[in-house]
From TrEMBL:
The keyword Transmembrane applies. The keyword Glycosyltransferase applies. Disulfide bonds join C120-C269. It comes from Python bivittatus. GO terms for cellular component: Golgi membrane. It is found in: Golgi apparatus membrane. The gene is LOC103050356. Belongs to the glycosyltransferase 29 family. Pathway: Protein modification; protein glycosylation. This is Alpha-2,8-sialyltransferase 8E. It catalyses: a ganglioside GQ1c (d18:1(4E)) + CMP-N-acetyl-beta-neuraminate = a ganglioside GP1c (d18:1(4E)) + CMP + H(+). One of its GO terms (molecular function) is alpha-N-acetylneuraminate alpha-2,8-sialyltransferase activity. One of its GO terms (biological process) is N-glycan processing.
Amino acid sequence: YFEFYDGPLEYNSTKCLDLRREIMELKVLSLTKQTELFERWKNLQICKWEMNITEANFFKSTLSRCCNAPAFLFTTQKNTPLGTELKYEVDTSRIFHINNEVFRMFPKEMPYYRSQFKKCAVVGNGGILKNSQCGGEIDSADFVFRCNLPPISKRYVADVGVKTNIVTVNPSIITERFQKLEKWRKPFYDVLKVYENASVLLPAFYNTHNTDVSIRVRYVLDDFESKKAVYFFHPQYLINVSRYWLNQGVRAKRVTTGLILVTAALELCEEVHLFGFWGFPMNPSGIFITHHYYDNIKPRPGFHAMPSEIFNFIHMHTKGILRVHTDACNFL
């Protein structure tokens, strides 16, 4: 393929149609050799990516029926009235009674609507981002999602950018790094300040342990007179997203935050670009990479099914539903 390569081939050239067909022939990740997947993915990079409007719209309409992010991504006063007995996502036998104090923390309704943003970047924290020089391209998006308070300091900005519209916070980070916000709260506030005007999104109703610590984030920001919005995932939305991806072959104790954000972005944005998503210990050229762009701490074994998620993303890229960036960026 590369003998006479002199620039990206047109999306619908015969060669690119063949390369896309070769990837779509790989149906089941467990039956696919990793080297074969990598080779076919690498070959596909010679083709320009274009959004396939028909495929993308069909996929978005499926998500609209199963999950409906524009109505249910966040817990709002509209979808969760005062007095609701809200079921937890995991502790399904437990409920949280929506009292006045918590109800007032919810936005009146979802602040985002269907296809509101033209181009979105969902930034994962994968080691594939290291030395990618993708910061400029990420920051050029109309809306940027980030997962779990990743570092965006000067050391990383060339690769990951700084623009952030929504950043998720896993309550385990608050518990482990910030002592559940029971003592000094300023270190946590200082970390959030780095994300400037970004809204903070937490899974307060994932299980009973998460609720108090998530609500405390709102109190901390109020104490420091921050204007940041704090939102809580709606537990039913998370259940529906997990169920949808289970049907697509993602069998895990829990889908990743990244996959949840990608699912939401596909409804809220016209065009979705993924950066830092690559759930393998080596890049497509077979060179070992760190788990995150900032460290090499691995998740709990068997908790997530990242390779399976990436396998789905590769197929979606190939169909023109979203774009996965794994090469270095040459953004001007």
